[in-house]
Design brief:
35% helix, alpha+beta, 7-stranded antiparallel sheet, 536 residues
């Protein structure tokens, strides 16, 4: 990737970090260091990714959990591999069953929106196929932090408190008791620097490590999940857990100005970023901080989301092929719709999410782009007593309209927000990248990729740059650092500009690039989070 390593046009707490032997970037320092420790102990980037991901379920529990889903892009031995570890809806879950339970729309909290968690299976699958160290060794740091506790970092504490205040209003009843005793043991969330521990979480991680995740899907943990689901009117059963297997998939990509940008195929929404880049590729951009650049980015994202909300779902139910959506002809047709004024392609209003992203790299050139989520902050609010397992609420994204492509059906994977990214050039790995955060993710991918490829910003500067987020219609939210004169110019083009009071909703990204000649890694981490780069 061509960039000026010292060019930092935006205020930042950091410069890019360089290393040769290994690198881990993520939103929490303890998790990043745990991953790097695996490399120092003789493991590889895959072991580092698993260790970091497992740690994040402990040190950033508001954003991800053992009871969530995962996706990964793995570069090893000159090839890119994709892993889809998103779980389907339970076999007993259908539009009719949800309505019979008293709901016209899928609720956000409780057992109803819980789908099969894929995360433990993703760790096992990655470890078995590409790892060097035993899973028991790789999960040790997470187990230690869960048993002995750790000081909660500032931004995570802030989001933890926001989730707690929200849960007090919306998540009440006996099914939520274990969530409060687990995550607010003193009747409140932990403060920054306060020690938090979860012995139940530690025991579950030990069980997963010792059984290669089989306990979660076929053993004691599966039985406990099944029993709690039945007790509180959920659809998830032991049979659903037992039937689940993560899927190795072929990544999808487009060439953007000589670089191949890769995503996981649907049911993930990574294709939205690729559609937008395809639309933008034929425009000539010369300046990052310009009205024309932002306007065209926004309009391309709106068109891409209009397509995504219409077509993305479990690939078995898609009515349009990936190849057609990524074709040059399709991009040209959509490009013609971009005018000098804001337009109105309108999918549904886009909610915020709770997700973690990490990137890892080792001396051998192995690299991993990994993302893990329980969807909303703390997911469903359901913690299975005695396990520390906080279950996701991914079923919330299904449509209750039987004619919609993403209509709820038994055993179906829903439209999925979490997306890891990867870049190659002429079959050489450049490296992993990601920007987590609900429906902000493809928008963040496009903005960060253009910052790096079009404007040659180094990884840290590419992440530091001001961000915008399309919400619905012509409503655009901009972060607090977004230039006021450009915001005003966009408003004159018909965009409805809302300036956010904080950075919380604009995604949290990580990047690792590798120089093909020197083999040196350079990393950037999100200034909007407790981000950290562990390097060796």
């Amino acid at each position: 990737m061509k960039f000026d390593p010292l060019y930092t046009p935006y205020p930042s707490r950091r410069m890019p970090v360089y290393a040769q032997n290994g690198m881990v970037t993520t939103t929490q320092p303890l998790a990043a260091q745990a991953g790097l420790d695996m490399i120092k102990q003789g493991g590889n980037a895959i072991d580092a990714a698993i260790a970091t991901a497992a740690c994040l379920t402990v040190v950033e529990p508001n954003s991800n959990s053992i009871g969530g889903d995962s996706f990964a892009l793995v570069w090893t031995e000159g090839k890119l591999h994709g892993l889809n570890a998103s779980g389907p809806s339970p076999q007993g879950m259908s539009i009719e069953a949800v309505r019979s339970a008293g709901y016209e729309t899928i609720p956000e909290y409780g057992m109803i929106p819980v789908t099969v968690p894929g995360t433990p299976a993703s760790w096992q699958a990655l470890s078995e196929r590409f790892g060097k160290l035993p899973l028991c060794e790789v999960l040790k740091p997470a187990i230690t932090y869960a048993e002995q506790g750790y000081p909660v970092s500032p931004i995570i504490a802030y989001n933890w408190n926001r989730a707690f205040q929200n849960f007090k209003q919306h998540a009440y009843g006996p099914e939520f008791d274990a969530w409060y005793t687990t995550f607010a043991p003193q009747g409140r969330p932990p403060k920054p620097g306060e020690i938090w521990r979860s012995p139940d979480h530690a025991r579950t991680l030990i069980d997963i490590a010792e059984t290669q995740a089989q306990s979660f899907y076929n053993g004691v943990l599966a039985e406990q999940i099944d029993a709690y689901s039945k007790k509180h009117g959920g659809f998830l059963s032991q049979k659903d857990l037992s039937a689940f297997k993560p899927e190795w998939v072929q990544p999808i990509g487009v060439n953007y100005r000589g670089y191949d940008v890769w995503e996981i195929p649907p049911n993930g929404q990574g294709i939205i970023a690729l559609i937008a880049l395809n639309i933008l590729e034929q425009f000539d951009f010369t300046e990052q901080a310009s009205v024309d650049t932002y306007h065209k980015q926004i309009e391309a994202i709106k068109l891409a989301f209009a397509d995504g909300s219409t077509y993305i779902t479990d690939p078995r139910s898609m009515k349009v092929s990936v190849e057609e959506l990524l074709s040059a002809r399709y991009a040209e047709d959509r490009r013609k719709l971009i005018a000098d004024h804001a337009t109105f392609p309108q999918p549904s209003i886009l909610p915020k999410g709770g997700t973690v992203y990490l990137a890892t790299a080792d001396q051998e050139g192995n690299m991993v782009s990994f993302i893990q989520s329980n969807y909303k902050q703390f997911g469903s609010g359901i913690v299975v007593p005695g396990t520390g397992i906080n279950l996701q609420n991914r079923g919330l994204d299904f449509s209750m309209n039987p004619d919609h492509a993403n209509a709820l059906l038994p055993g179906k994977r829903t439209y999925h927000t979490i997306i890891p990214g990867f870049v190659t050039k002429q079959n050489e790995a450049i490296g992993p990248f990601g920007v987590m955060g609900g429906f902000m993710q493809p928008q963040g991918h496009v903005q960060v990729m253009m910052n790096a490829i079009d404007y040659h910003l180094n990884p840290q500067a590419a992440l530091d740059a001001p961000r915008w987020q399309w919400k619905s219609g012509n409503l655009i939210e901009v972060d607090p650092t977004f230039p006021q004169h450009i915001a005003e110019a966009l408003a004159r083009k018909g965009h409805q500009i809302l300036r956010a009071s904080d950075h919380n909703s604009f995604g949290r990204g990580q990047i690792i690039w590798r120089d093909p000649q020197s083999k040196v890694y350079v990393g950037g981490t999100e200034p909007r989070a407790d981000g950290h780069i562990a390097a060796w």
